[in-house]
Amino acid sequence: MSFGKVVVLSMLAAFSTTAGVSYLAGDPRDAVSVEVLSPSVQIVSTSARPVSNYKQYTLCSGSVRVHCVVDGDTIWHNGVKIRIADIDTPEVGDPKCASEAALGARATKRLLQLVNAGPYEMQAWEGRDEDKYGRKLRVFVRDGRSLGDILVSEGLARTWTGRRQPWC
């Protein structure tokens, strides 16, 4: 990597303590990708490849939420609440029946496994940046496949159709 690129990357990293900066060697079109996730999520990329968002997550508990899984379709990433936009999972906070609670717990556990399995990409949801609760809407992708699609294929989620459907 040239000294000039090191200086530019250092300046970008200094821009924010929550910025993720990566240099992609090889093709000059893949020079720099920057992601800033505080106070609002922004995904900025000068390359064709989105930036990975690998962090070690836990289950959310307590009032401080930085990198944790809330339920099967919601996480906190760098202190920003993010809703997986392409799916809907059963509620764990206010389930309507025992089967919804059980399936919601399984979906939550599985999402925790998926986000901790390695790097993935957060892609903007077409048409909307936030839902009505102020959560950022993103699609999580690893190796070209939506993590939401994995949850759907395992029977732990439904594809999002624009409105909630009952689980009981």
Automatic annotation (TrEMBL):
Pfam families: SNase
Family annotation (InterPro entries): SNase_OB-fold_sf (IPR035437), Staphylococal_nuclease_OB-fold (IPR016071)
Gene3D superfamilies: 2.40.50.90
Keyword ATP-binding tagged: no
Signal peptide (residue range): 1-19
Domain TNase-like as annotated: residue spans: 60-168
Keywords assigned by UniProt, alphabetized: Signal
Protein name as annotated: Thermonuclease family protein
Protein source organism: Agrobacterium pusense
